[in-house]
């Protein structure tokens, strides 16, 4: 998640400690695109990972691809979402390893950095521009208008 | 004397001797303690679950009262084995849970027969995942539809049924008696 979290690397002492809010994910089940989230790694039931939520179920998104200049397009199936690390080249995420991941793996939303003291502050929700091509909500609205 | 009797006695004493604020404080503390104990029990020890729907017939009827006891598996999801009945977050909707039988664990191979007589496909269950199926194969939406499920989504393993009748729920693989 560099440069958003752990900007000085993963050495002990340089790592960030964050505050994780579970209410919006585990109770309301309403995570938003752009949030930094904590989730269980799909391939390791004992490991939690921190990623940015890019797309939700029903979305169609553009995925950059190293071999293809235009990238590829992914549709997110029911009950899944798309997560990516901010440090694209070194992140194991939906783009490089997992594909769309289950929403049930999400544990919470990272709201603040609480340690070290120099880095205390809010963690912003940022949607990378131009990635979402359609959303299910927009498609439904268009269908309602047509009908 | 149980805790409820002590609580009732405390309330009576509060009415007589102490002010409203003290009584309120005492009851808030008791409520918080009770909630904490229940939270720990249901999330880390065992919990009850009501089954609706026919997907686990004939193991569970899915009609009327069908209550099972499941042991919670905090951080021990990788102890589930093929044949166990588990309660798991529904892969297509994280707000709901499903009850299914584990028919294969990571590393085992699964053969899928497609409707309409197409060629069967074989796949290996990936690391950290399990394959779930209902006992009622013709009325169950399970891994045949949504694929392997990550172990982190398993909430607990079903131990026994308590309503409408008491019975153990032993591990069993399809085709076994």
Automatic annotation (TrEMBL), chain A:
It is found in: Mitochondrion inner membrane. InterPro entries: IMP2 (IPR037730), LexA/Signal_pep-like_sf (IPR036286), Pept_S26A_signal_pept_1 (IPR000223), Peptidase_S26 (IPR019533). Keywords: Hydrolase, Membrane, Mitochondrion, Mitochondrion inner membrane, Protease, Transmembrane, Transmembrane helix. It is a single-pass membrane protein. It comes from the Eukaryota. CDD domains: S26_SPase_I (cd06530). GO terms for cellular component: mitochondrial inner membrane peptidase complex. Belongs to the peptidase S26 family. IMP2 subfamily. This is Mitochondrial inner membrane protease subunit 2. It comes from Raphidocelis subcapitata.
TrEMBL record, chain B:
Its main location: mitochondrion. One of its GO terms (molecular function) is serine-type endopeptidase activity. It holds the Pfam family Peptidase_S26. The keyword Lyase does not apply. Keywords: Hydrolase, Membrane, Mitochondrion, Mitochondrion inner membrane, Protease. GO terms for biological process: protein processing involved in protein targeting to mitochondrion; signal peptide processing. The keyword Membrane applies. Residues 28-111, 124-160 form the Peptidase S26 domain. The active site is at 55, 100. InterPro entries: LexA/Signal_pep-like_sf, Mito_IMP1_subunit, Pept_S26A_signal_pept_1, Peptidase_S26. It is found in: Mitochondrion inner membrane. Coiled coil: none annotated. GO terms for cellular component: mitochondrial inner membrane peptidase complex. Signal peptide: none annotated. Belongs to the peptidase S26 family. IMP1 subfamily. PANTHER family: MITOCHONDRIAL INNER MEMBRANE PROTEASE SUBUNIT 1 (PTHR12383:SF16), PROTEASE FAMILY S26 MITOCHONDRIAL INNER MEMBRANE PROTEASE-RELATED (PTHR12383). This is Mitochondrial inner membrane protease subunit 1.
């Amino acid at each position: 998640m560099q440069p958003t979290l752990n900007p000085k690397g993963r050495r002990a002492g340089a790592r960030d400690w964050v505050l994780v809010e579970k209410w919006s994910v585990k109770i309301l089940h309403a995570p938003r695109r752009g949030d930094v989230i904590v989730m269980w790694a799909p391939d390791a039931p004992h490991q939690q990972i921190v990623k940015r939520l890019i797309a939700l179920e029903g979305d169609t998104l553009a995925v950059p691809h190293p071999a293809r200049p235009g990238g590829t397009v992914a549709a997110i199936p029911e009950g899944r979402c798309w997560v990516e690390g901010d440090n694209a080249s070194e992140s194991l995420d939906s783009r490089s390893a997992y594909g769309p991941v289950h929403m049930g793996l999400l544990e919470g939303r990272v709201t603040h950095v609480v340690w070290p003291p120099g880095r205390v502050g809010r963690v912003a929700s940022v949607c990378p521009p131009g990635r979402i091509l359609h959303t299910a909500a927009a498609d439904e609205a268009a269908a309602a208008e047509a009908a | 004397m149980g805790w409820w009797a002590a609580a009732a006695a405390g309330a009576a004493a509060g009415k007589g001797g102490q002010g409203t604020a003290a009584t309120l404080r005492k009851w808030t503390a008791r409520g918080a303690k009770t909630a904490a104990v229940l939270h720990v029990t249901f999330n880390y020890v065992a919990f009850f679950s009501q089954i609706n729907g026919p997907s686990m017939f004939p193991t569970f009827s899915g009609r009327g009262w069908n209550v099972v006891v499941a042991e919670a598996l905090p951080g021990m999801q990788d102890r589930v084995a093929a044949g166990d009945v588990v309660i798991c977050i529904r892969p297509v909707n994280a707000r709901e849970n499903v009850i299914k039988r584990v028919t294969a664990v990571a590393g085992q191979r699964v053969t899928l027969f497609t409707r309409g007589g197409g060629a069967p496909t074989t796949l290996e269950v990936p690391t950290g995942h399990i394959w779930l199926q209902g006992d009622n194969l013709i009325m169950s939406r399970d891994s045949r539809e949504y694929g392997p499920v990550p172990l982190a989504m398993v909430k607990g393993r079903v131990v026994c049924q308590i309503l409408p009748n008491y019975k153990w729920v032993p591990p069993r693989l399809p085709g076994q008696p």
